[in-house]
């Protein structure tokens, strides 16, 4: 998978593969059939519509109003919101998992929907005649205007307001690999916060399956290994991280961790 081009990495299939780590008995074919069922229910209606935005409105109405997919506002950081099988079963998810459902259904109906790795809150985008239509899957696929998008991104830019060109760059389509990595990084964050370090290590490991030698994932896996006392793995990962990112903001802290690991190894011998 790491050697495949971004567009060749299957979005739904890989998202279900991520879920299989936590649910080893997961039947991927079942959820593939469920998505296709959503598509077939919509096909006759969307085939009668010419404009992509109107097709998308019909898709959103079916997914969010009729089927009840919704953002989990009450337990946003529940890891089930990142596992696609749970999203299909509970009809609850976080922005990125709901976006995956939207994207898969829309594309199978000929609507070229893309994900957007927007800071803080994943979005989706659709080309229209005079630009792009940006929607929020966490809130029923609600369209977002340029002013609201600027306000949303401003805290992530130190309070600066992006101009049109900067905003368009932020709204670039996200490749499949980037979407899946963001799913895994969300899971790492949830599990690290819960101090479930075996699952945190697994999540970072899966990032490295998609993007070998990704520095942040090496650091994250190394720190998780340290927490579960897998010292050899921690030593290898943190050493590699410092080799790849010697001037990182946390480089000195990682060097101190390495010194502790090496001292511990000396004492063990």
From TrEMBL:
InterPro entries: SirB1_N, TPR-like_helical_dom_sf. Residues 35-185 form the Protein SirB1 N-terminal domain. Gene3D superfamilies: Tetratricopeptide repeat domain (1.25.40.10). It comes from the Bacteria. Belongs to the UPF0162 family. This is Protein SirB1 N-terminal domain-containing protein. It comes from Pseudoxanthomonas spadix (strain BD-a59). The lineage of its organism: Bacteria, Pseudomonadati, Pseudomonadota, Gammaproteobacteria, Lysobacterales.
């Amino acid at each position: 998978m790491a050697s495949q081009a971004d567009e060749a990495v299957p979005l739904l299939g890989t998202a279900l593969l991520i879920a299989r780590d936590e649910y080893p008995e997961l039947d991927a074919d079942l959820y593939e059939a469920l998505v296709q069922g959503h598509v077939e229910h919509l096909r006759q209606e969307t085939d009668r519509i010419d404009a992509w935005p109107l097709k998308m409105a019909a898709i959103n109405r079916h997914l969010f109003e009729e089927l009840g997919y919704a953002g989990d506002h009450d337990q946003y950081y529940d890891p089930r919101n990142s596992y696609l099988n749970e999203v299909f079963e509970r009809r609850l998810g976080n922005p990125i998992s709901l976006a995956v459902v939207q994207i898969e259904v829309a594309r199978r109906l000929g609507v070229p929907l893309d994900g957007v790795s927007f800071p803080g809150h994943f979005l989706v985008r659709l080309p229209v005649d005079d630009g792009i239509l940006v929607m929020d899957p966490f809130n029923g696929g609600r369209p977002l205007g340029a002013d609201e998008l600027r306000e949303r991104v401003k805290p992530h830019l130190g309070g600066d307001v992006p101009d049109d060109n900067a905003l368009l760059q932020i709204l670039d389509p996200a490749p499949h690999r980037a979407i899946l990595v963001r799913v895994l990084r969300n899971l790492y964050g949830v599990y690290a916060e819960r101090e479930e370090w075996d699952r945190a290590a697994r999540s970072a490991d899966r990032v490295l399956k998609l993007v070998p030698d990704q520095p942040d994932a090496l650091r994250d896996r190394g720190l998780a290994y340290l927490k579960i006392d897998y010292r050899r793995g921690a030593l290898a990962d943190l050493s590699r991280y410092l080799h790849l990112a010697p001037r990182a903001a946390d480089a000195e802290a990682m060097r101190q961790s390495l010194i502790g690991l090496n001292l511990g190894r000396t004492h063990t011998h």
